[in-house]
């Protein structure tokens, strides 16, 4: 798969998701009220189908799709969805970048050089200082709370870390969307 096809897939997903976010933010008409409860489920199913199609196209062993708006990470192994976990991405005033990356390096017992030696177990670095890693602040998972990394429950971080280590860094992609 070419980078161009990946970029187009990300763009299409972003446009669809942005349209959904706009539709959710406006007041529903009388006709829309009847369907209001079903719409989020249909949109979630549509997003998952897009993830599944893109997982097949990326042709790598392990893929992590991060939805910042939902604070979720979906793990695909061999193109098949295996897990969905709560995450914490950047809190207000910080940024979790969107895009697609390979794993740059892995660190099982990493500590932050930027944030007071904070523990970052099972780190998968993908973009400079940005990583997917475990956190000891598990009560904040499901809400934006990080300085920019993607935080996971330490048990889930270990599962993903072990999958990436077994497959190899070149066989991993992380796709982060708004």
Structural summary, described in words:
The protein is of the alpha+beta class and 178 residues long. The chain has a single domain (3-177), classed as L,D-transpeptidase catalytic domain-like, CATH 2.40.440. 34% of the residues lie in helices and 30% in strands. It has 4 helices and 9 strands. The chain has helices spanning 3-25, 30-33, 39-58, 154-167; strands at residues 62-67, 72-77, 80-86, 99-102, 105-111, 119-127, 130-134, 150-152, 172-177. The strands form 2 sheets. The protein has a 5-stranded mixed beta sheet with strand order 3-2-1-9-4, sandwiched between helices. A 4-stranded mixed beta sheet has the order 5-6-7-8, covered by helices on one side. A hairpin with a 4-residue loop joins strand 1 (62-67) and strand 2. Helix 1 (3-25) runs antiparallel to helix 3 (39-58). 27% of the residues are buried. The model is unreliable at 1-39 (pLDDT under 50).
